Amino acid sequence: MRRWAWLLPWAAFAEDVGCERRFYVLSLEAGANSPTDDRGEAEVRAPQLRRCSVLAYAEALRRGLASSKCAGSLEEAEVVVVPGYTFRNCHWPSYGQGCSDANVFRAGEECYDPSAVQSYGLLRDHPDFGGKALALVDAGASVLKAWLADVYSDPRFILLRLGPALWFHRAGVDVSLPPGPTPRCSGAAAQHAMDEPLSARRYLASFKGKLRNNAARVAMAKLHHNDLDVIVVDRLDDSHGYEELLYSSVFPLILEGDMLQTFRFTEAVCSGGIPVLVTSSQVPPLQELVPFESYGVLFREEELPSLVARLRALDGLTRARLRERALQVCRAHFRTLELQAASVALQLSRRPRSQGRKEACGHGFHALSLTETEAMCPELRACQVPRAALDFHESFRKLKNGACMARLEESHVVLLPGYSGGARNLPARRGRRCSDEEILGAYNRLLSHARLDGKLLLLASGFGGFAEVGAEGVEPFAWLRVHPSQENFRNGHDLSVPPAPTELCSSVQASQSFLEPLAGKRFLVSFKGRLDGPLLDGPLSALHDGLEAVVVDEADARYSSEYLLFNSAFSLVVPGEGSRFNEAVCSGGVPAAVANSSWVPPLEGFFLFESYGLRLTEAEAFGVVPFLRSVLADVAQVQLLRENARRVCSSALQTREIQAAAVLAAFHQPNRGYEERVGQLLLQTIYDEDSNVFYALFQDQILYKAVAGRANTFQSVWISVGAGPFAPHLI
């Protein structure tokens, strides 16, 4: 074994914090058990681990954790930290030298194999560790090794993993490790760059690294390199130096490399700029402790085309705030391995809490990770996972501490991840195209698993996963469906969920559009999409006159979809794939759906489509322009619809996370829209004949109004016009 200066014990950490729980760190040093015994503490209890090599990073982290103020004796500890026998990432402290002597603390075999898991099982079952959780320091070339699922199936294992993937990271349980710092992180050049103002930087954004064999990096170069203020070049390109770009860019780019994590991460955070992480798969380091979004800008890979435009649009105050926070995070958490170990210790010392739920929630909701699912049902490991299905699933997992979210043991409802056999699906994880029958059969077998006993299993359809299944495949699950029809939908049991949102739904233009008067919109009604159905190719396409009504095919270059949405009083929605339902609701106008009786609007029951949109039959489509003119003339009615559309957009449609939160609430109260009534006694009403509006005073002494034809007891059709208090004789 080698002893280096960086392995000396650390006296203290940067942050003086209390410890919610203590952990005990098993020693790797010879003689820890007796003067003549050369085995570490773990190896005495699991002898097979003695064969394993231990890398320098894993040992440095172990020692750092052992020096933490939260480290205690074995008797008082709730967590036992096991040395990094399965940590296989040879890039520290000498980056690029592989598993050379400089990066290896103890030579031996690579133990990223099932035998190591058996040894971990021996440690878990050892009487010395009874009831304690075991924290494993881990990093491997593949996140899909079969043994990993076996670890995740046991709640007593905690993974401290370098470069974890979103689909198996357990937020609040596991820890995403930071890559070891390079000398650049604390060097004089970095310090000088931190002291310089952002305005002095020459480049807007930059990246220099290996481009070949990496689709995202190649795409970034082709889309955005302009040789002026956005530089994306290969590491062999001599036109720009690596440090020149790193310290002269407002936004240093972090792009995934051969593995999910990259050692450029810490250099970018400590560069004095604002780090930009591009990933659809990775959990950023220490995400639960210091969320990346609080000090950097996060993009998904599919957002690459708009990346530079969105960076340019960030205002000076936002840039200054992110930059200041990045400096703080670098100095407190990433700059040295001592600080990194202190931060890992801080996160590890936090006791997992039962996630509190509001009384109104009524049930605990848990989104089962891919790895948890595959540990219970191994045959699913071979199946392809579509990108759309994974994005939808991860939106629930990102809610973490949401009001209705719970740990698996405390949950009543469990959402299963989506698998697919569809040939046209873009996969997030490649694999075999399993058939619907295979996947549904696997889900049926999960019903009998001990950890899911008595829980309602929730499946998602329409995200590139299942095709439509018949009635015989519905029970005993509940379903979240995109574009369902009444034939395969059970009111009060299943939910119709909105399609994936686009950037338009949460754009500044959408917010501004709601503030503009409807009468001032350029068009009365518009639609742009595929004109290949009998309805679109017939009565609706005949509406087009280019003046009041614009109905054109998606290939028509004369009209921009966004322009039509923001400049139309009414946006037509034709149910089905590509309907642009979300955009129509969030456009600042009023959505008008042309649909038959089988259509189930998104979140219908929780919201009522009639409260924020117009529903037209196919027969009514022929006279839609005169009808819409009459609606527009009824200012009170159209304003009510528009305000409710704005509310539905902001509370249920704008982003995947907002949609997920709305789905949780709707799953608990699927008929809220029908049951939500004004719960006060009606004291007095007045009818305004000129405007055809009822004014109503309720027992809460607040004045409401509603269009006469819609003045029923549904609260969603009334709007308050005066906070009062009003007495009955005053109105």
Characterization of the model:
- The structure is a single chain.
- By secondary structure, this protein is an alpha/beta fold.
- It folds into 5 domains: 5-177, no CATH class; 183-307, 3-Layer(aba) Sandwich (Rossmann fold); 359-496, no CATH class; 506-654, Glycogen Phosphorylase B (Rossmann fold, 3-Layer(aba) Sandwich); 682-730, no CATH class.
- It is built from 22 helices and 28 strands.
- It has a 5-stranded parallel sheet, with helices on both faces.
- α4 packs across α12 (370-376), α10 (316-334) crosses α11 (337-348) and α13 (387-397) packs across α21 (656-668).
- It is globular, with a radius of gyration of 29 Å.
- It starts with 22 loop residues before the first strand and ends in a 9-residue tail after the last strand.
- This is Exostosin GT47 domain-containing protein.
- Belongs to the glycosyltransferase 47 family.
- InterPro entries: Exostosin, Exostosin_GT47.
Strand content: 15-25%
Rg of Cα set = 29 Å
Major sheet strand order: 1-3-5-6-7
| DSSP strand tally | 28
Helix/strand-derived category reads alpha/beta
Which regions are unreliable across 5 or more consecutive residues at pLDDT < 50? 1-16, 354-360, 467-473, 676-683, 709-717, 727-731
* Tally of alpha and pi helices: 22
How many separate domains make up the residues?
A: 5
Distance between the ends? 89 Å
Inertia-based shape: globular
Largest sheet geometry:
5 strands, parallel
DSSP helix fraction: 25-40%
Mean pLDDT: 81
Protein name: Exostosin GT47 domain-containing protein
Domain Exostosin GT47: 170-314
Family: Belongs to the glycosyltransferase 47 family.
Organism: Effrenium voratum
